Amino acid sequence: MKFCVLCALRKCHYQIFQAGELDVIFTVDLFNEGVDIPTVDTLLFVRPTESLTVFTQHIGRGLRLHPGKEHCVIIDLIGNYRNADIKLSLFDTEPNDTKSKRIVPKVPDFCEIDLDLKVINLLEEMARKRQPRREKLFEDFMKLKQELGRRPTYLELHLKGASDSAQYRQEFKTFFGFLHWANELSDKEKEVFSRYENWLIEAEKTSMSKSYKMIVLLCMLERGPSNWYKPISPVEVAPFFHHYLMEKEYRKRIDFSDKASTRLWEYNEDAVSKLIATMPMAKWSSSSKGLVSFENGIFQLNFDVLKEDEEILYDWTKQICEYRLHVHFERKAK
């Protein structure tokens, strides 16, 4: 007869844990079923599962009755909670056609599910958000976030994300609208989003047959968080505008090579300034519903930026600008 050291160790640790001499035990694909340790009052999930059966087995490890045990704490680090309302439906005794309409299931006699009001509100919100396309975008975003170890930027989402980045804009109007929906913003960021949502949508959605609008915006952003949103003239933008388009061959070829533009390859401040005034500044002003204006030779944003919002709004605007420039040249190069 062969002696299994590993099995013996498992049995030993199991017995010690069962006797209450061990406070915590970690397992991988063990104790899913067939284990009865009624004293367990805390579960930690670090493994994702889409299986209702496996999930039910997991939480079952902590739902055994025991004297002095009033509840079981479940710590979910992996997001299994996101389908909690569906998983709760396993306990529902009503016909299937009514399950989707009720967050708290109707359980058998002598059983009770008592949910805090905040939990019920959370489950209702998750059920409301459960839309296949949005869920897919959210899952792909979270996978990338996990890979990077932080929240991805807009451009990183485009370059490394599994879903087409344009879908985030189509579904939520802006990338930051998605972050707000996904509860990925801090309380401070939520305030900033609420105050400047219209600007973020404008920067995200303003039409672009050429890159000129975003080059002007990028030039403004070069002035830093405290000054980027202040008025600017075509003459101030001209050197940056010309250098940006001439610096890379692909930019010059795609957006600066028509008959009128080729005359500007050799820098002429007056001519480049006139182009900027006529094209991006005047056109953006006429299509922005008052958010930006170009009058008396000055281009400006028609909203105030609070001092405490400068850093966040600057970062978000820059992310949109860099994303749109990249996508524009990427699309035109195909």
From TrEMBL:
Residue intervals of the Helicase C-terminal domain: 13-65
Record-linked SUPFAM superfamilies: P-loop containing nucleoside triphosphate hydrolases
Keywords: ATP-binding, Helicase, Hydrolase, Nucleotide-binding
UniProt-listed Pfam families: Helicase_C
UniProt keyword Coiled coil present: no
GO CC annotation: cytosol
TM annotation in the entry: none
Keyword field contains Nucleotide-binding: yes
Single GO MF descriptor: helicase activity
Protein name: DNA/RNA helicase
Organism per entry: Bacillus methanolicus (strain MGA3 / ATCC 53907)
